[in-house]
Amino acid sequence: MNLLYPDAHGTAAPHVRNIDIAGPHGRLPLRIYRPRSDTLLPLVIYLHGGGFVGGSLDDADLPAHYIAATLPAVVVSVDYALAPAHPFPAAPEDAYAATLWAADNAATLGADAQRIAVAGDDAGGNLAASLALIARDRQDVHIAVQVLIGPMLDPSMTRTGDAARLQSDLRAEDCADCYRQYLPQLSQRLHPYAAPLESCRQAGLPAAYIATAGRDLLHCEAEKYAAALIAAGVHTQVERFAGITHATLLAHPPLLDGVVQFLRCRLGRAQAGHNDARHAV
C-alpha cells in the first residue's frame, strides 16, 4: 500500500501548501493539505511529535497526507513553538490559535467548521488532548474528535511502563528530559493542559481514538487516560499494536487505517447531525 498516496478510494494526492499566520508568539507556520473535492470536507488539525523540544511539519507529513487523501479531509499541520525557548503554555496556545484560524477560514479552505478533529503523535498527542480540553473550556470552537497516537500524557512519570520488560525503544530518562524543558516549573506538571491525566474533568470531551504501541513505555499512561475518558462517558476506542515500538507506530499501516476509520465514523455522524439541524431551521 502506498501510504502517501493511497488510491483505494480513487482520491488523488492532496494539494499541499505552506502558509504563515499570526500566532500568540509571532509567526506561526502551517502546512495545509487539501484533496480535490466539490463538497466541504472535514477539517483535521495535526500536531507533530518530537517531545515538545523537536520535530517539524516534515515529521507529520506522512499521517497528514494519508488522512487528507484517504478520509478525505482538509488537514492543517501546525509548526507550534518548541521548548526550551518557548516552554508551556506556548505550544498549546499555538495549537489553539491555529484551530481558531482554521475554523474561521474553513469555507475558504473548503472545509466544514462543524466537523473538526484534532490529532497528534508523541508530544503532539499531548497537545491534541490539551486542545480538546481548552476548546471545551473556552467554547470558542467545537471539536468533534480527538486522535492521540502514542501520546505523552504524564509529566509526573508515575504511570509509565517498565521499559526493560516492554523492550521499549523510548527511555524514561528521555521523556523526563523533555518534560524538564517543556515544564520548567514543577507546578506546571499538575496543570491539566500540560498533564491531561491530572484533569478531574473529562466529561464533555470529544470522542477519542487512542493508539498505543506494545513496545512503548507510554502505552500504560495512554490507556489509563482512555479509561478515565470512558468512565466520564466519552466515546473512546483504544488500540494497542503488539510488537510495535514508539518510533514505528506512526508509520504502521493498521494504525493509519484505524485513525481514518474512526474519523470517518465520528465525523460522518457529526455531519448528519449538522444537516439535521440545518434542515430543522
Overview of this structure, please?
This protein has one domain (15-280): Alpha/Beta hydrolase fold, catalytic domain (Rossmann fold, 3-Layer(aba) Sandwich). The chain is built from nine helices and eight strands. Strand 3, helix 1 (61-70) and strand 4 (74-78) form a beta-alpha-beta unit. It has an eight-stranded mixed β-sheet, sandwiched between helices. With 281 residues, it is an alpha/beta fold. The protein has helices spanning 61-70, 90-104, 106-109, 123-138, 163-166, 172-182, 219-231, 246-249, 253-280, and strands at residues 15-23, 26-34, 41-47, 74-78, 111-121, 145-149, 207-215, 236-245.
N- and C-termini, Cα separation: 44 Å
- Please tell me how large the radius of gyration is: 18 Å
String of helices and strands:
EEEHEHHEHEHHEHEHH
CATH architecture: 3-Layer(aba) Sandwich
**Low-confidence blocks of residues:** 1-10, 272-281
